[in-house]
Amino acid sequence: PEPLDLHGATFNSGGTNTNIDNLANYINNHDLHYLLLPNPPAISQLHALQLQQHHHLGLVYTTPPTTNKTAQVAIIYNLEFFNPHNPPDLLEDPSGRLLSIILSPILSNTKVQLIASYFPPNLDATPILTPQQLNHLSLDTNNRSNPIEYRQKNSILKRREAERLRLTITTWAQTHKADLTILGGDQNETLNFTDRLPQNKASTHRTNTLFNLTNDGWRDAFEIIPESLSTNTDDPEELGHTYYHHNSCSSSRLDHFFIWRPDLQLTHQCYVNNSFDLNPSTSQHRPLHLSATLPTANATTNQKPKWKPKTLYIPPNLTAETALQISATVNTA
C-alpha cells in the first residue's frame, strides 16, 4: 500500500480560557488528523459526545489529581481518518500528565501510537540529579519552616517526576511497538541554547530530561541544524519557539514533538503556526505542527534501518509504587 501522510499538532491552550469548539474548528480548518492537548480546556464526556456528533472527532483525556486540576492532557483525533470501529488502546499515567492512544488509519494497515505529555513547570530552573539523589531523596515536604529548603526540595521533586514520566513514556513505546509512535506536548524544558531568547537564559544542561529522552531513542522532530539557519538567528519562529511571554521580549521552545526510533528515510516536517488562529490572548503558547509519512505496515523484508541514539541512559528505579506519592507532592508545588 502507498504510504499515508499524517498531520497533527500539539497546543497548550491555557486551560479553561479556550473553547473546545474552537479547537475542533482549528483541526478541521487545518486538515489535522489529531491534536495533542497539554493543559486542555474544561472537558467532559458531554464534550466528547458533541465532538463526535458535530465534528466527527474522538476525544480521550486523563483524570487530573485532586491536588492539581491543571495536570491533565487530552487527545482529539479525526474519526474520518482513523478507524472508528477499532476501540483505541489507552494508557493513562496516574499523575494525569501522560496519555497514550493507539489508532489504526482506515486506509492503511498500520498502527499509530500518540502520546500526549505535560511535564512539571520550570524544569530549566531545577537541578540535574544523580541517580543516588533521585533514589534517596526524602519525599517529606510537609515541613515549611525553612522556605528556601522547602522550595529547593520541591524543585528537586519536579526533576524526579520529570524523569519518572520520561521512563514511563519510553516504556510505553517499547512495549507497544506501533508502526509509528509520536510524542508531543508541553515538556516545559529547553534542549539546547537556541531554545530560549535571550540566550543568556537558555539551558546549558547536557543531561537534562529531554536530553535523556533522546538517548532513550526519541528523535526531536524539530531538529536545528546551525548551518541551515539564516543570518538572523534571533528569529524565534525560525528557531521553533512555541512560548512567548506576554510581558517581555523573551521566548522559548517548550513544546516539542519526538518520534520513536524512526526509519532513517522517514520524511517529516515540523513547524510552529504563528497565524494566531487560536487567539493569542488565551494562551502564551503557539501550536506546533508535525507532518509525517506513515511507513508501510508490517514490512518483513527490506526493512529500513532505524535511527539509533548515541547512548542508552539507564534511569534510576522510579517505579509505579512511588508514582502517586511523587505526583501528589509535585502537583501541589
Describe the structure.
With 333 residues, the chain is an alpha+beta fold. The chain is built from 6 helices and 15 strands. The protein has helices at 20-29, 45-55, 131-136, 147-176, 209-216, 323-331; strands at residues 5-10, 34-38, 57-61, 73-78, 89-92, 98-103, 112-118, 180-186, 196-197, 218-220, 243-244, 251-252, 255-260, 268-272, 288-293. The protein is globular and about 55 Å long. The chain starts with a strand and ends with a helix. The model is unreliable at 310-333 (pLDDT under 50).
Count every helix, treating DSSP H or I runs of 4 or more residues as helices: 6
Kindly state the number of beta strands: 15
Structural class: alpha+beta
The SSE order reads EHEHEEEEEHHEEHEEEEEEH
Q: What is the radius of gyration?
A: 19 Å
Model regions low in confidence, pLDDT < 50 over at least 5 residues: 310-333
Distance between the termini: 50 Å
Give the overall average pLDDT. Answer: 78
In short:
With 333 residues, the protein is an alpha+beta fold.
Structural features:
single chain, 333 residues, alpha+beta, 6-stranded mixed β-sheet, 6 helices, 15 strands, 22% strand, globular, disordered C terminus
